[in-house]
Specification:
- There is one protein chain.
- This protein has ten helices and nine strands.
- It is of the alpha/beta class.
- It is globular and about 70 Å long.
- One of its GO terms (cellular component) is nucleus.
- Its cofactor is Mn(2+); Mg(2+).
- Its main location: nucleus.
């Protein structure tokens, strides 16, 4: 909240639900929540945080090596290749500081314009496989969002690729400037929505939070299917489409539209299906009921963190087994199958008698090859 010309201003489209501070009871409940989260092991240790910083530092150097080799392979001189740069950006839960122990790190590899996507799935993949710190390297170029996954020094990393229309990528590059997104071909624009935009949105959320009072920096009206807007949609100069249900019929199909604050705006929940919407709504209601009981003192936070008994919640289960003849092929094949699970659930939702389908990804890592 800010005061301007005697009027209150706030970030976001809707005003805050309340501007008064927390009560003594709410402070007490907050302290007990932090204690329960610590007991549940939600917060990563200091050693783990340092280890992740080391991992990201090594990966950043690896990306620069990748850009250097790709530049040489594209016929550039030694001097130009050596100064082409390259940079990584983390996004998602790790970038926002809300990750837990063992969480993966979503990493965006930003490269200059002469480095091609094919280089990413050849040169960079081979560089990863050659590093002793990397295990279970698997590339899934056919996925909706092409990705390379691996464990690097024990930390799971998802590598995504983004190419900007720049001759070099310096270490001080930031993605706030919308002009960086110009001159992208159609394929890069499609990748932009899944790759560049999450980083820009994460930065916007962090900046907004730093300049606002704690816990009052936005309010989100949960009234679906009306869109939740973190920020008014920008009218930018770029030739990239923005979320607009009046112009684009597919935007009207979003079941739970939450529009990202950074340009170009997009629906960050485009993959919410009938089933996941049903599950989330049910869990939101359950959580609200539990929190109400916590506030009045009839239960504790431990009830909110009870384990979900997945294998007693449904009557029917469908097992999908992805197997191949070698460990290397298994990584690629299992990753491809995993990327298609959402489409399978959406197809199952077309069955008239099926009310909800809940996927559980399990056992998609390499196992001993099955006998031929």
């Amino acid at each position: 909240m800010q005061q301007a010309n005697g009027q209150q201003r706030f970030l976001g489209v809707t005003p805050p639900i309340a501007t008064n501070g927390p009560t003594d009871r709410e402070k007490e409940v907050t302290d007990s929540l932090l204690a329960e989260l610590t007991k549940e092991g939600v917060f990563p240790s200091g050693d783990e945080a340092k280890a992740r910083e080391v991992v990201l530092s090594k990966i950043d150097a690896l990306v620069k090596e990748f850009v250097y080799r790709a530049s040489l392979a594209r016929g550039l001189s030694e001097s130009i290749a050596a100064t082409s740069g390259g940079k990584i950006f983390s996004f998602g839960s790790y970038r926002l500081g809300v990750h837990g122990p063992g969480s993966d790190i979503d990493t965006l590899c930003v490269v200059p314009k002469h480095v091609q996507r094919e280089d990413f799935f050849t040169i960079f993949e081979e560089l990863l496989k050659a590093r002793e710190e990397a295990q279970d390297v698997a590339a899934v170029p056919e996925a909706f969002v092409p990705v390379i996954t691996c464990k690097f020094m024990g930390v799971e990393i998802d590598f995504l690729f983004a190419r900007l229309a720049l001759p070099r990528i310096d270490d001080d590059l930031e993605l706030h400037d919308s002009n960086l997104l110009k001159n992208l071909d159609e394929r890069d624009v499609r990748s932009l929505e899944a790759l560049v935009l999450p980083t820009r949105s994460s930065d916007w959320c962090q900046t907004s939070r730093r300049h606002c009072e704690p816990l009052l920096y936005h309010s989100l009206p949960v009234k679906w299917p009306q869109p939740i807007l973190l920020k008014n949609i920008e009218e930018g100069p770029l030739q990239t489409r923005v979320w607009n249900p009046k112009l684009y019929p597919q935007d009207r199909l979003h079941r739970m539209p939450i529009i990202t604050p950074a340009y170009p705006s997009m629906c960050s929940t485009h993959n919410v299906t009938q089933s996941t919407h049903t599950i989330m709504t049910k869990e939101f209601k359950r959580a609200a009921e539990v929190v109400d009981r916590i506030i009045v003192g009839t239960t504790g936070w431990s009830e909110l963190f009870e384990k979900h008994d997945f294998f007693h919640s449904y009557k029917y289960y469908l097992l999908v087994v992805a197997s191949s003849g070698s460990a290397e092929l298994q990584l690629k094949w299992s990753g491809t199958v995993e990327s298609k699970i959402r489409q399978l659930i959406m197809k199952l939702e077309l069955v008239p008698t099926l009310m909800c389908g809940s996927p559980l990804h399990q056992g998609l890592r390499p196992r001993k090859p099955m006998p031929q």
